Amino acid sequence: MTIFLQTFVNALALGSLYGLIALGYTLVYGVLRFINFAHSDIFMIGAWISFTFTGWLGWSTGAPAYALPVILVLAMGFCALLAVAIEQIAYKPLRKAPRLNVLITAIGVSLFLQNTGVLKQVFGTQPQRMPSLVNDHVMFTLAGVGVQFVDVLVVLLAGALMLLLQWMVFRTRLGRAMRAVSFDERTASLMGINVNQVISITFGIGSALAAAAGLLYALKYGSLKQSADATWVLLGLKAFVAAVIGGIGNVRGAVAGGVLIGFLEMYGAAYLSPHLKDVYVFVVLIGVLLVKPSGLFGKAVVEKV
Amino acid sequence: MKTLAERTAAQRPNVALTALLSLAPLAVGVIAAFLLQAVLAPAVGPFYAKLVLDVGIAILLSVSLNIVNGFAGQFSLGHGGFMLVGGYTAAYLTYYGSIALWGTAEIHGGFMEGGDIFFMVACVVGGIVAALAGLLVGLPSLRLRGDYLAIVTLGFGEIMRVVIQRTGDVLPVAEAKQKGMLGSLTNVGGSLGFTDVPQYVSPTPWLEKTGHAGIFFTYIFVAICVVVAFRLKASSNGRALLAVRENEVAAEAMGVVTARAKVTAFVMAAFFAGIAGGLFGHQSTLSPSELGFQKSIDIVIMVVLGGMGSISGAVLAAIVLTLLPEALRNFSQYRMIIYALSLIAIMIARPQGLFGTKEIWETTWWRRLFGRRTKAEAP
Question: ipTM of this predicted complex?
Answer without folding.
Answer: 0.85
